[in-house]
Structure formats: C-alpha cells, structure tokens
Design the sequence.
C-alpha cells in the first residue's frame, strides 16, 4: 500500500497482542479500523518472526487479524501528532492518518542498565536478540551468556538454544526465593503455570543461577567474555554473545505526545482502557507490565469500548482483574537489586548515541540539566536507552516529548501540510 | 516485470534472497532482516559511534539506532527492522 492519506474510525498503533486484539474486537463490530506498526509483519516483539516459529496462540490472533478486514499499515513509524491526525513515515515517504478513536498499544522495550563494556558489538537485549534470530541472525554454535532479570530471560535462553546457540549460563539477578514466590503465585493462574513448567522442562541442560549478574564485558572490537558476580565471588565466562536486559519499560513517547495522564510510571486508564484524553485508549504494557495474556484482554476491552460496545467490554473485566494479579506478582518477583544499578564506572558510557559518560551525567541534578549541558539523550534514539536507565538509577523523569518522536525525513513533516 | 518474476522464481528455487553487502554478494534465507545479512557476511562493526567506537545491533527492536546502515543509498536505516529484498545494496560503517 503506497497511498499517503488515510482516514479511519479507529486507528491502533502497535501490532502486538494488545493491538491485534483491539483491532479484531473493533473490526468485528463493523468499524473501519487500521493498525500501524514499524515492523513488516503483525505480531509485535513477542510474536515476532516467521509463522513457523509462532505459537498456536500467535497464529490464532494473526490469522483472525488478517480475516477481520483491518487495514494493515506495515513498516509505518509515527513521528508526530496533530489534532485527530497522525503523521507517520513509510519507507521514507510521509503518511497522514486520520482517526476518530485512537488506541495506543505501543508495548514495551527492554530496560538496559549501563555496565563497563555494554557498548561492545555482541552485547544485546535478550528479547531483541531472539527477535533478530527469528529473522535470520546467525546464532548456531555461538556461546551465549543470558543475564539480567525477568521471565524474558528464560524465553530467550530457550529460543536461542532451539536455534542452535550454546547457552553458557543464565544469570537471573533476583534471589531464588523471590522467583519461587512468583511460581507460588502462578498456582492461581493455571495456564501460566503450565507454560512456565513447559519452558522449565525444556531448559534442563541450561546452567542457571539466581542472585547473579554481570559486572563487566570484555573484548576489543567485539565481546569475548563477561565477568559475573553473586555478590561474594566473581568469575569469568567466555562468550561470543552477551544477552543482558532488565525486564521491560513501557514505550510512553506516543501517549506523552498525546498528553495522556500518567500514574506510577504507566498510562492512567479507566475501566474502559480510556485515558485522560477521552478519545484515546491504551492497552497492554503501556498500562503496566503484564505480558501477553493481560495485553490480549485489555486490547479487546479497548477495541470494544472504542467501537461503542460496552457490554462486550464489560464481559472481560473479571479476566482482566486476574491478569492484573499476575502483573503485580511479576513486579515483586523481578524487583531490581541495588547492585545492578551501580555497575557503571565514571568512564562507562551512559548515552550511547552521543558517547556521554556516566561520570559526566551523574554530576547534574536532573535530566533536563544533564541533557542541556552534556547532550545525553539528544542523539538518534532520543533518550530511549539512556533516559530509561537514568530514570531507574537516579529517579530522573524525562517527561517532555517533542515531535518528531522518531528521527524522520523533513518531508515527512512538511508534505502532510499540503495534503 | 519479467525480471521480477524471474527473481521470484529464483527465490523459490534456491530458497534464498541475494543481497550485496559492501560490494560482496550474500545469500540469506527469505524473511531475514538486513542485520542478519550483514552478520552472515562476517561483519560485526555496523557503524562507529560519534567518538569512533565500534558498534553493532543492540536492542534488536528498532529503538536504539545502533544498527543503522545505508540501505539502497538511504543512510541511517535500521537494519534490525528492514527485511532483505533481492539485489538490495547494503553498506556498513559510512
């Protein structure tokens, strides 16, 4: 599809579980719906990849999505918003997309915390690496250390092993007792318990350690080894790849641009998934890190609510409440220990785009000052990596979001004015 | 048009897409992203940072911009998100 001007009743940003569920719900109510995503295929990060790698649940939703009559605007990144229009870019060409109701389902990205050596090629986010491996990145025969925190580590280690990687170690920073607490909590959620058990079983053969984390990556032009610790002793693991991430952080740029109110680091929504801006809805990780199950339920509620079908939405409220119980358990189980927030030395780069060191940034009182005087967060990722880290380590908020929310060609902003 | 059809048949027959990485032909499985083609070409340094340090893909999901390369003449294209297409011209470290 190469047109540039679009108009729909309901526009959904994000084609992960929340966005696909919202799209199916709204379209099956007879609304004219479009889904926008920066990637080439629906599924989002969690269901990313070719169909042969997908779970039955992913196949179910993606097939339902393709049957639903929704307009699929792939490889389209939103760069700005103006009134009831989104300005976006598709293969370097501008797109202007009009909406009456907007559902934001932009999901989450991995949280990264700086440590010496984290900028070396060969250091990845675990979820992102698995996504690339599903899209052809060669991993067979490679020695991989998976580290950080969160359920994504298990899924990544398993997926990478299935693609032929040699997992040297899976290091989870949370204490074993904490993670067991999650397992106990899972007893209330049978489906998740089964998924967890299946993954655990398949993981047999992968060396795992709780209460352990990486402190430094070594290598010249590429990572060659990583030093880890359990707080008492330190040891080295040789590796070709270090996959290290600290669970997830929501992609709040678009809801912030739309001036949606926040609460405790997430978008504030009511029972109908409606934000403080009445015509804008949010679903999935934007409202709290709860995984695909919560995202599918919230997505459907948002889709029905936006389509003006409150009864269908209300029927899902109790399932959402139970998914939110799991969300709280996740946050407790994978709470970050203070040590992993204190790994950067003064020479360690915090801002990877502008090469600004931790030593320079930490001497300022807030994000805004540090940004103005060091250029940290002013590079092409626009603070998505270093700003998230600064928020977790220093508690600095990065609330101002200005268009373009993504690096864009100047014509993507100028041409829509003439449309 | 005939070229296109022939290329499609070639993809079906050989099960691969042919791209060019820094002037060298590389065959990748269909559905591969550009980053995968660069890695298959044996290249680990995708670009240099503002102070000249080697960098490669990091977040793997289009957020960090570390994997940016030149694709068909378009600089600063995210190689972790862009799918390979036949005869695509890919240049690293520019």
Sequence:
């Amino acid at each position: 599809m190469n047109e540039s001007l679009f108009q729909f009743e309901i526009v959904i940003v994000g084609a992960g579980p929340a966005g696909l569920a919202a799209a199916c719900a709204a379209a099956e109510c007879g609304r004219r719906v479009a889904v926008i995503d920066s990637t080439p295929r629906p599924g989002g990060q969690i269901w990313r990849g070719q169909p042969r790698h997908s779970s039955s649940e992913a196949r179910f939703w993606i097939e339902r999505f393709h049957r639903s009559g929704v307009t699929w605007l792939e490889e389209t990144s939103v760069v700005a918003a103006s009134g009831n229009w989104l300005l976006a870019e598709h293969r370097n060409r501008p797109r202007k997309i009009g909406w009456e109701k907007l559902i934001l389902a932009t999901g989450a990205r991995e949280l990264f915390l700086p440590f010496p050596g984290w900028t070396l090629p060969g250091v990845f986010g675990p979820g992102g690496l698995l996504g690339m491996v599903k899209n052809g990145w060669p991993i067979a025969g490679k020695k991989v250390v998976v580290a950080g925190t969160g359920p994504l580590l298990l899924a990544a280690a398993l997926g990478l092993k299935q693609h032929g990687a040699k997992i040297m170690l899976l290091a989870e920073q949370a204490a074993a007792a904490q993670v067991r607490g999650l397992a106990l909590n899972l007893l209330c959620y049978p489906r998740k318990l089964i998924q967890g058990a299946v993954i655990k079983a398949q993981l047999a053969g992968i060396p795992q350690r709780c209460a352990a984390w990486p402190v430094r990556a070594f290598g010249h032009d590429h990572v060659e080894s990583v030093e880890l610790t359990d707080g008492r002793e330190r040891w080295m693991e040789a590796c070709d790849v270090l996959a290290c991430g600290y669970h997830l952080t929501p992609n709040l740029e678009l809801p912030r641009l739309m001036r949606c109110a926040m609460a405790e680091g997430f978008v504030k929504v009511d029972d109908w998934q409606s934000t403080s801006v009445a015509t804008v809805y949010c679903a999935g990780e934007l409202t709290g890190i709860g995984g695909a199950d919560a995202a599918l339920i919230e997505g459907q509620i948002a889709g029905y609510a936006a389509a003006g079908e409150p009864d269908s939405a209300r029927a899902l409220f109790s399932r959402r409440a139970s998914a939110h119980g799991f969300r709280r358990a996740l946050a407790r189980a994978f709470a970050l220990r203070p040590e992993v927030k204190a790994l950067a030395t003064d020479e360690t780069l915090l801002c990877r785009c502008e090469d600004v060191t931790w030593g320079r940034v930490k001497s300022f009182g807030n994000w805004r000052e540090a940004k103005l005087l060091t250029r940290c967060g002013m590079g092409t990722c626009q603070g998505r990596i270093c700003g998230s880290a600064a928020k977790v380590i220093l508690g600095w908020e990065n609330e101002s979001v200005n268009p373009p929310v993504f690096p864009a060609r100047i014509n993507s902003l100028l041409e829509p004015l003439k449309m | 048009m005939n070229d296109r059809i022939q290329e499609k048949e070639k993809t079906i027959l050989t099960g691969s897409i042919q791209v060019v990485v820094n002037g060298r032909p590389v065959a990748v499985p269909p559905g591969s992203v550009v980053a995968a083609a660069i890695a298959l070409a044996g290249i680990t340094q995708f670009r240099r940072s503002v102070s000249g340090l080697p960098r490669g893909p990091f977040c793997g999901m289009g957020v960090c911009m570390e994997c940016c390369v030149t694709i068909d003449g378009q600089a600063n294209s995210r190689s972790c998100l862009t799918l390979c297409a036949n005869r695509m011209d890919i240049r690293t470290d520019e």
Remarks:
- The interface with chain A takes residues 28-29, 31-33, 35-37, 39-40, 44-46, 49-51, 53-66, 68, 74, 76, 80-81, 83-84 of chain B (CB under 8 Å).
